[in-house]
Amino acid sequence: MATQDRDQWTEPGAHEVAPGVHRIPLPLPQDGLRAVNVYAIRDGDRVVLVDGGWALAESEELLAQSLDKIGYGLADISAFLVTHAHRDHYTQAVAVRRQFGARVSLGEGERPSLELLAPTAPRREIAQVRLLESAGAGHLAQQVRAGLDPNPDRTDWEPPDHWLPDGARVPLGERTLEAVHTPGHTRGHLVYHDAAQEVLFAGDHVLPHITPSIGFEQAVVTSPLADYLTSLRLVRAMPDARLLPAHGPVTASVHERVDELLLHHEERLDASLAAMQSGADTAYEVAARLGWTRRKRALADMDVFNQMLAVLETAAHLAVLAERGRVRCEDLDGVRHYAPA
After folding, report:
1. Of 142, 166, 230, 334, which residue is 20 to 30 A from 136 by alpha carbon distance?
2. What is the pLDDT of residues 2-28, one digit of tens each?
């Protein structure tokens, strides 16, 4: 049950991280995140999974192989406790349910986004295109629009069996998990706290080596970064726990990483303000003056998807600066402009 090595966490298998809990990394089709961790929790003669993975044939096969190593099969999954409704966490839970009948639970705050993704929902342009236009990145919005699948497969976006409220207690065979609402990454994100074992199934709320995207979802909110910072402080006020993240290795302290994330965002707020003081006045122009990822890459050097995330994250930082009275803003011809207060 040693802390997972930073560079080896994607190795396939069922890695024990707490008594009765195994971490199973599953593949993703993108290069960036590399893998997603799902956590198998022993529940008598059945098994419960925190998160489900991306609905891919290779992912389902690896999940079956990994469960077999600890004495279970896909048919032994009684339930999925999903942290949020992103494809790499939710869709395989739905696909496995379709075959074997496992119960799927999701935070009730995810309902608005999932309703927009449902197979029966009318087709609509994703909100991020409009947000990019408001951020002064009209050319990027056009590229995102051009790259969208006009007829996406919505098969695996069916609703869950159960919408979990904040504070819901989930009794399992040897433990009880508490679902804690932590909006920011998405509006309905949940973490699952096992107080007795002192572990936190953190989903994408707290990640050990990267910062999660903010507010990338179908049903957008006004100030996702403000929500995220509040949620970080909420988790910081809870007893410290072993961090079981959705991406990256297991680490010893949730509190330590939360402190780093809070500091990071304060530094980004300061850097965003400095970019405005040097002449940038839209989220796109500010983003273009900041460095991205640990390598401090230029915005223009990233692919379209990550440029979109960067610009939207910058817009979220500028919104917080406006809420704090450090900048003022006005909308002109559909573009939001900022200036130091």
Report:
1. 230
2. 444 566 899 999 999 999 999 999 999
